[in-house]
Amino acid sequence: MYKRAFTLVELLVVIAIIALLMALLMPALRLAQDQARAIICVNNLRQLSIAWLTYTTENEGRLVNGHVHRSPNFTRGIYWVEPPQNANGVYVGEPGDPTIEDKLRGIKRGLLFPYVKNVKVYHCPGDARIDMPDQLAFRSYSITGGMNGEAGQFGAVPIDTYDEIRNPGSKVVFLEEMDERGWNMGSWVIDPENWDRWVDPMAIWHNDRSTLGFADGHAEKHKWEDERTIEFAEDWRTTSPVQPGNPDIAYMQRAYVYREIK
């Protein structure tokens, strides 16, 4: 029996239909992938926030040190994570060229790791720095400076006990940060007396949203309202941090905790 083959025109029509279907489906697939990454990220920060809260409960209300020291003279055994170090425990951070393994050692030797017990919790799947040869970053999260973090920034004295936190469900402990130097150093800070200016940029990996972890142990995605916030996060070197009237700065100011200004 003779079977008629497809004509060239028919084949082109089929190819065009397939291409159209792919064009329609790809955005939905990308959105689904983004949502899956965001779910993992929220779960990560929920686990870290609960670990942070549990540590505080088991240590008479004292907060874990939220600073990540960038010096070979850092004190061991006091930070939530330690800086990159080689197999002998020798600091190999800045200046240096630490490997992913060096950075993971610092995470595992931090005081929160016994509660978390999984290095993957410290990495957002939306953080692509892990595949960048000039960065090879792993840890995607930082602690805000006022939560027993980097002292002396803009005269703001960090708190060091949980009782100093009012309305813990609205106070940010963890957030996503993208330090271009290969690992998130210090703490994330803002100037408490300047509501028109960013200091440290945040990472925005979830469709104009970032994941935040709070002092009551919960975590959530937060949508940024001002396009300037997103521009500063994506290119802080050329985007002005001075952004009068930015509601996102006001939000983070209200969520930022410190004891006093000296």
Describe the structure.
It is built from five helices and six strands, in the order H-H-H-E-E-E-E-E-H-H-E. The protein has helices at 8-58, 100-108, 113-116, 227-234, 247-255, and strands at residues 141-143, 156-157, 172-176, 209-214, 219-223, 260-261. The chain has a four-stranded antiparallel β-sheet. A two-stranded antiparallel ribbon has the order 2-6. A hairpin with a 4-residue loop joins strand 4 (209-214) and strand 5. It starts with 7 loop residues before the first helix and ends with a strand.
Quick gist of this model?
The protein has helices at residues 8-58, 100-108, 113-116, 227-234, 247-255; strands spanning 141-143, 156-157, 172-176, 209-214, 219-223, 260-261.
Protein traits:
262 residues; alpha+beta; 5 helices; 6 strands
Helical segment tally?
5
Largest sheet: 4 strands, antiparallel
Strand neighbour order, sheet with most strands: 1-3-4-5
Average of per-residue pLDDT values:
91
Helix content: 25-40%
Shape, principal axes of CA atoms: globular
Coarse structural class: alpha+beta
Strand percentage lies at: 5-15%
- Given as residue ranges, the uncertain stretches (5+ residues, pLDDT < 50) are none
Q: Helices and strands, in N-to-C order?
A: HHHEEEEEHHE
Could you give the count of β-strands?
A: 6
Radius of gyration: 22 Å
Write the layout of secondary structure elements.
Blueprint: H1 8-58, H2 100-108, H3 113-116, E1 141-143, E2 156-157, E3 172-176, E4 209-214, E5 219-223, H4 227-234, H5 247-255, E6 260-261
Antiparallel strand pairs: 1-3, 2-6, 3-4, 4-5
